[in-house]
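Appendix B, Record 12. Input sequence as logged:
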Amino acid sequence: MRGLASRRSIRTSVFAANAAIITLTVIALVSYISIWGGKRLRADMDARLDDMARAASASIDEGLRKMDSVSVSVLYSKMVKDRFVAYSGAGAAARDEQLIDVLLAIIGPTLPVRQVNIYDFKGRGFGTGMDNRARSVDPAATPWFGEALKAEGSMVLSAPHGDRSLNRYLTTQGAGDLYISLARLFFDRYSKPIGVVEVEQSCEELFRDLKPEEGRAAGSPVAYVYGGGGELFFPAARPASAGRRLASSLRSEFSGWTVELSADEGTLLEPLRRFVAASVVLALGLLAGSLLTSFAVARRITRPISRLRDQIVALELGSLAPESARPQRGGPNELEELDAAFHGMRGKLKRSIDSRIEAEGAEAHARLLALQSQMNPHFLYNTIATIGALAEEGLGDRAAALCSHLSDMLRYVSSQEGTETPAAAELEFTERYLACVGVRYGQRLSYRLDYDPLFAALSLPRLLVQPLVENAVKYATVGEPPWEIRVRASVQGDRWEVAVEDDGPGFSSEAAARLDALLRASRDEGAPYRGLELHGMGLANIAARLRLRYGEGAAFEYGNLGPRGAFVRIGAPATAGATGGDGADA
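Logged structural output:
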């Protein structure tokens, strides 16, 4: 039952992963089409609305420019000025046929405008165009009249308004048409204001290229025209609209009017919605077929994986016994071959592990314990001789202190607590060693031990720092005193470093060559134990022990310091574990 559950779990995982990939791919594709298509349609509609707004504004400006051209022609006609002065003096009932003819000539036979009217400041005047007779307006009740007086000759445009006198000449279908008036202040030949010229044009003609919402085709843009003050000129009212709309507006520099084109976004995106819906249906069909195929493939693939997984889960060192060859199932393929190969590998793996542990474990353990128990016999002889000399001279306190240092050092070296020790204990052992040699050499030898508190908290291989110091004392004291030994231990980032320096003669070329040969030998042929000796704790031994403990993360450097002195630096990762055999682990 456990194996069956495992096979189902693997199969379900493979199937779920394939299903998720296929589903996400379909969703991403449909979403991309929907988002990209929507953005593209909106961008196209925005560009289309911009073009239509420019075209509509240009069409309206063209009609207004025709009206302005007629008004300017009237203003600059001397005959119109003279006849209007005469007409104004004749009374409201007068009819000046010559003035009518002049105005009709100015308007032209095609009637680009519906009406031209001239009023005096009391609102009495005469009209020509569709209605050739006397006219009058109430200056106080006519907004464009007062604005024309204030404009001092500049063009003034009115809001759409009715004109019953003109509407009676229209057919029934045109009854109730609205008009736009363009007005200017009228001057006589001496540039004295004498009235106001009004040019009228029907909104039907001026906005002929625009269609209100109720008269347009479904989905086509709707046009709106606003005056300079933001009032709606076309159409008469703006109907309420539900949903979002795309809009583009353009303000005319000539008239100050704003033309706005808007379109319903829902109607615009309706073809895209239908396409996406059809794509979703198709994608669901493809998804169902892909999932069925994925299930069949997952079922076939996971059979040998399930068997291999069961073997790996049950694999233990004690269960690595040779077994008979497992026959292939389901046809010859790579996964079946892998299952069979793993089945036959278990016996070979057990024999290899047993022999490797027996050979390398015993060797590493023996060598590390031997290195740990070493100590220079000359140091013991010299220290005991120094204790005897102090006793003979009556310096019992100093002899007792030296005995205490030596006792603690021997206890540290002979400890059976393993090859690892706190760095603080190693530093204390090193300091006791320096104290012992300091008694022997007196003021001729000075030393300084500096270390980082972070370094003291680390764990190091036993007898790693003191042998470096002993080597420095041995070779520094061959020259003339005084001698100085400097020890620095620090943690930099994720690595620790110990540097030992002296002011002796330094490494000779022969000594450096021998040491380099030993260091190369310890790395040749992948043998981490080469270069270790059971007599002495030389620099090559320290380098080999570092590599044994820290592998490729170990660092060992040496060299000379200027004209006098030498240095040795070692380092390794501060958190690294053993990479080779270790006496404590063996």
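The first helix runs from residue 2 to 75.
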